[in-house]
Amino acid sequence: MAVSRYHVAESTERERSMAGRVVSPCVGLCSTTVGDRVCRGCQRIDDEIRDWPGFEADERRRRMDELDALRASVAGRHLTVVDAEALQAQLERHRIRFREDQPALSRAVELLRVGRGRIRDLSRYGLEPREPLDAMALHERIAGELMTAAEARRQSVDASPFPSPLR
């Protein structure tokens, strides 16, 4: 069986760790390679991306939970997930990576990033916008606010008086 760090129905966290894979929020769109301090794809800080493989599993889990909460908070201002099963079915149908334990609103952010130009009816994806916006406008609004929130997260880490594993 091929093991992926993302959704594979028969794979478990134990199997993934046995395979030596490091679970990561990476979505394959790393803007830190072009000089951004915060990745536009996964919202991690450049130091965090660099240090990710060296973090203990509990630290990676804590940070992924933090990033998922950030995505869910921002996305939740603009849309609701009315059918999580439909959302998951569409993610699988379109082969969009997600983690089994990833919250639905965090998954929705990735769906909009990948499918924003093709999605015509958000309800078919289990999503309902809070304002009458199409997928493209919704993605742009969420992505902009997400980067603002991720940058604030970076600045709070940089300003912390305590030693950080990010430095």
Structure description:
By secondary structure, this protein is mainly alpha-helical. 47% of the residues lie in helices and 4% in strands. The protein has 6 helices and 2 strands; from the N terminus they run H-H-H-E-H-H-E-H. It has helices at 13-18, 46-51, 57-76, 84-93, 104-115, 135-159; strands at 79-81, 127-129. The protein has a two-stranded antiparallel ribbon. Helix 5 crosses helix 6 (135-159). The protein is globular, with a radius of gyration of 16 Å. The N and C termini lie far apart (38 Å).
Report strand order across the widest sheet: 1-2
Percent range for β-strand residues: under 5%
Q: How many H/I helical runs?
A: 6
C-alpha termini separation: 38 Å
- Structure class: mainly alpha
H-E string:
HHHEHHEH
Compose a concise summary of this entry.
With 167 residues, this protein is mainly alpha-helical. The chain is built from 6 helices and 2 strands; from the N terminus they run αααβααβα.
Helices and strands, with pairings:
Layout: H1 13-18, H2 46-51, H3 57-76, E1 79-81, H4 84-93, H5 104-115, E2 127-129, H6 135-159
Antiparallel strand pairs: 1-2
Helix pairs in contact: 3-5, 3-6, 4-5, 5-6
Question: Descriptors for this entry?
Answer:
167 residues, 47% helix, mainly alpha, 4% strand, globular
